[in-house]
Amino acid sequence: MKPTKTILAIIIAISFTSCQKEKSNDPNNPASSKVKTYTEDATEGGTHSVITFDVTYDASNRPVSLISESSPGDKFVLQYGSGSFTLDLYNSNVVSVHEVSFLNSNSLIDSTFQYNDTSDSTTEKYIYNSAKQLITLKEYDYSKANGTQLFNTTNYTYDSNGNPQSETDDFSVTTYEYTTFVNNLVFMPTYLPVAKNLVKTTTVTSGGSSSVLNHSYTFDGSNRLSTEKITDDNGNILIKSYTYY
Fold it and tell me: Domain of life, per the record (predicted)?
């Protein structure tokens, strides 16, 4: 999996919330929906790690950085242009991944170009249906000598609520079931479609075997997502936590 798939998922999730104009369902409790910190607490194979990122924004409430509290040189930095934005991943203050995302006329990601500190380059093409749902993602390796070479294609389907129902690529099939909880965690301009509800289970099938991820959630007093706990078949646990301004 490309590193930026995870990065973009985190950043897009946080961003969608901040761009909802700070709205609250209760006018007497105008709680901010801007994410202040994002934490991942992971337990896997007997090891345990915790990392917390501080999130900063520009004047348009778009996130411009996620900086590790324990290692400030480890960070994500975003810059926005006309019709594009860039994402840089820093390790110890050195850029390890640089990605440019180009937007289409609907302000959704049309294509990307990425290179990293091992001199690998990849590019992606995003294809949407008339409902602005992502239906196909094509991933390519890129080199000056050979140009672009397709290495993976992912096709998406959706349920009647507009939530992603399945992702089928060249290596695996991923399916989702959803809770009735509304997905109100949004954290930057909507550059990719997002699920309307929070995921209940994720099932990944590859090579004839399947694994299931179970998701559970807690919310704060303002009904904002506080934690998401993800547990797999082997007892590995990932807890994502959010605090707000």
Answer: Bacteria
